[in-house]
């Protein structure tokens, strides 16, 4: 049985200096040999940047706003992660090698898009995505809110190491000692690639500020054309409030031994600027200094509050 103690025993492994979950590393060669097709759309995010949100948006666009069709399965199954390899889960019986559930799902279904959190992209993404010149949909979220969200996620997710205190986690995060590595490397890597490949680069904060505008961009990128009323419906159904109540997106089907939502909800706050409730003045100054150094030469403007 999996117990809440498990989280504390989790020993992460590394690929090319990036920390990953052990089951992902154990399946690494299989993941790397994944064969993308030219018309694949890959959703790429750093953890906690709004992965679930963009997954639901893409599926709703693909299904022309048909809510019932989007209820056909939980989001993790509708949009499998290519690197999603984990130890067996009590709620997912029927797989002999559940560690390969992501890959198995991919070969058995035809998802509208795939999802990846590969960090140093040129090194970690299966090469077939570049070779086939696939479409990439990248969502970036400001580093401070990502850190806060990831901290609470590690508190409740027993498949990840215990984050320790907020002060301890601050160091862990800025040093990139979290699963999928450094936020800075991830965002810089994709930002550099965006003019060389077919990448739509979106910001969490923009989707929050003007969802219809950003959802329309995604629709156009996907080569779809939907009516205004359908777009309005997608905006409504992918709001934080709706997705928090939706069992197909809120992870309520995941067992408590894996995600204990009594500690912190998977759909936690969904706001811009929650970092202000966590960062001390000193931490904020130190973070800004580190940010300047690490992001030198990369001109991305992140919105820190709405
Ligand atoms: P918070 O912890 O700040 O609330 P991911 O899906 O990549 O794990 O990201 C999770 C973060 O996105 C969480 O942030 C979650 O609340 C937020 N989120 C999920 N759905 C959202 C939505 N529809 N609107 C806004 N934020 C959303």
TrEMBL record:
Cellular component GO terms held in the UniProt record: cytosol
Domain Sulfotransferase span(s) in chain numbering: 38-298
Record's keyword annotation contains ATP-binding: no
Keyword Transferase set for record: yes
Record keywords, A-Z: Cytoplasm, Transferase
Entry's localization field: Cytoplasm
UniProt feature coiled coil, ranges: none
EC number(s) from the headed UniProt entry: 2.8.2.-
Primary subcellular site in the record, as a coarse category: cytoplasm
Example GO molecular function: sulfotransferase activity
InterPro entries referenced in this protein's UniProt entry, alphabetically: P-loop_NTPase, Sulfotransferase_dom
Pfam families per UniProt: Sulfotransfer_1 (PF00685)
Enzyme class: transferase
Family per record: Belongs to the sulfotransferase 1 family.
Protein name, per record: Sulfotransferase
Lineage of the organism: Eukaryota, Metazoa, Chordata, Craniata, Vertebrata
């Amino acid at each position: 049985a999996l117990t809440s103690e498990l989280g504390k025993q989790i020993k992460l492994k590394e690929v090319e200096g990036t920390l990953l979950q052990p089951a992902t590393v154990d399946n690494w060669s299989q993941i790397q040999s994944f064969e993308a097709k030219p018309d694949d759309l890959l959703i790429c995010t750093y953890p906690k940047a709004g992965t679930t949100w963009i997954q639901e948006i893409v599926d709703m666009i693909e299904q022309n706003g048909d809510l019932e069709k989007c209820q056909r399965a939980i989001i993790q199954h509708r949009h499998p992660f290519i690197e999603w390899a984990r130890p067996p889960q009590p709620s997912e019986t029927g797989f002999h090698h559940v560690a390969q559930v992501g890959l198995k799902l991919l070969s058995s279904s035809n998802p509208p898009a795939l999802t990846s959190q590969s960090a140093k992209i040129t090194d970690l993404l299966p090469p077939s995505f570049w070779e086939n010149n696939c479409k990439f949909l990248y969502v970036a979220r400001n580093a401070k809110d990502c850190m806060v969200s990831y901290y609470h996620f590690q508190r409740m997710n027993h498949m990840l190491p215990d984050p320790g205190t907020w002060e301890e986690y601050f160091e862990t995060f800025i040093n990139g000692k979290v699963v999928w590595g450094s936020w800075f490397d991830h965002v810089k890597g994709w930002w550099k690639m965006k003019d060389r490949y077919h990448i739509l680069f979106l910001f969490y904060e923009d989707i929050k500020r003007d969802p219809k505008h950003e959802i329309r961009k995604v629709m156009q990128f996907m080569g779809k054309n939907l009516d205004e009323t359908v777009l309005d419906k997608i905006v409504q159904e992918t709001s934080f409030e709706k997705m928090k109540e939706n069992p197909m997106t809120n992870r309520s089907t995941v067992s408590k031994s894996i995600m204990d939502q009594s500690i912190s909800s998977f759909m936690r706050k969904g706001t811009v600027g929650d970092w202000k409730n966590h960062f001390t003045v000193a931490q904020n100054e130190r973070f800004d200094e580190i940010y300047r150094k690490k992001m030198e030469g990369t001109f991305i403007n992140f919105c820190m509050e709405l």
